[in-house]
Design brief:
- The chain is built from ten helices and no strands.
- By secondary structure, it is mainly α.
- It has two domains: about 100 residues; about 110 residues, no CATH class.
- Helix 2 crosses helix 3 and helix 2 crosses helix 6.
Length: about 240
Amino acid sequence: MFPHTGWTQLAGAASNDPDQLDRLIRLYWAPLKVFLVASFPSLRDRADELLQNFSEDRILKEGWLKRADRTRGRFRDLLKSSLKNFVLDHLNKAENRNAPASLDDLGHEVAGPDSPSEQFDLAWTRTVLAEVLQRMETDCRDPDANQPRRTHIWEMFQIRILDPIFNNAESMPYEQLVNRFGLKTPTDASNMLLSGKRIFKAHITNVIEEYCEKDAATASEVRALEEFILSLAKRG
């Protein structure tokens, strides 16, 4: 969904910047755990341990990140294949275990909507989306913001867009929103929601630009994430 995501952090992390390395690992930890458990269900209880070992043996190993080549595809795909190979290698070396018929079977990605790769992508989307929404809320609740109704814009966005998606709430009619926020007409409420969508898109752009080069890939990723949530809402 997000081509080239991760290459900008990678450039900083490859220079052994501790903060960049820590951010890189935190960003990918949850999606990689989802991928590991989906690919190797029997290792669920050891997922955190294996991810810690993978981080130390691969991501934090001097020179490993510098060998990553963006021309070969998305950094996320590199991480998935590297993690899979790491776990298979670990299983090959493990002692006193009941060997499966084929190690390839352990890493087999079942075709369909619940494949490990698709589960990884969904977890990654949620990770990015959570950061976007956190930044948007902080921005809208900033007491120094010039726009006095900016806090209401966040609340409007939450009530009309987020709650129906994540909390299965009924979409509050504009007439009720007019009374709730002291507006004059439903058009005012609609315009306020439109402002919320613009702020949302601006934060998507800022977050995505931290994850990839400022090129056509950025625009593609912004559209993908924006459409993901706004299409779910199907209202506005």
